[in-house]
Design brief:
This protein has 196 residues and is α/β, with parallel strands linked by helices. The protein has 5 helices and 6 strands; from the N terminus they run αβαβαββαββα.
Length: 196
């Protein structure tokens, strides 16, 4: 049997791909890139040394630090930036913080409205109730702010904040962490121009 792609099937495939990418659970908020782009940067260094886990702590920061550094170095190299301590024009650092985010209000998570109206065939079903529970309440987030500073002035020239809702706060899954950091850094560096 041969498959023929019609414009409708291609459009449906594209829409599904976009929807899957939008549902990744990772949000990025990049700052304006104009100051960084005007600096004509190529060489960078890390502002801080890698974290050393000398006490065998189970803190997820010690697992995240080498993964984040490796992935950011890889993504910056793909854009033409060179890690070179001696010729560094800008430095890279990050700040990690756990946070809390209020979920959607139950009125926004369901088709039940406090306003009188007529909606034919709009009855409450279990899926609507489950969505209201899942989207409501407080959610824990992991937040990483990537910060790029000019080496001469020591001022920030660009930053981006990466936020992900934590699915299981009691379990550190390094494979999931690698995947999330890769995806988050890819999204975060989309607006960063290629090196000159």
């Amino acid at each position: 049997m041969r498959f023929f792609y019609t414009p409708a099937s291609l459009l449906l495939t594209l829409v599904l791909a976009v929807m899957m990418a939008a549902c990744s659970g990772i949000e990025t908020r990049p700052a304006d890139i104009a100051t960084f782009a005007a600096g004509d940067y190529k060489y960078y260094k890390w502002r801080s040394e890698p974290m050393q886990n000398t006490t065998n702590s189970q803190d997820p920061m010690y697992a995240m630090d080498p993964i984040l550094r490796k992935e950011l170095d890889k993504q910056l190299a793909a854009k033409g930036y060179v890690l070179d301590e001696a010729r560094a024009q800008f430095s890279v650092d990050y700040i990690f913080a756990a946070g809390m985010r209020m979920g959607a209000r139950s009125a926004e998570a369901s088709n039940i409205s406090p306003y009188p109206s007529v909606n034919p065939n709009r009855q409450v079903n279990q899926a609507v109730v489950d969505n209201a529970y899942a989207l409501g309440g407080v959610k824990e987030t992991s937040n990483i702010a990537l910060q790029f500073n000019d080496e001469v002035t020591k001022r920030e020239v660009w930053q981006v904040i990466i936020t992900k809702i934590v699915e299981n706060v009691n379990k550190v899954d390094t494979r999931e962490m690698k995947s999330s950091l890769k995806e988050g850094i890819q999204q975060a560096l989309k607006t960063l121009p290629d090196a000159s």
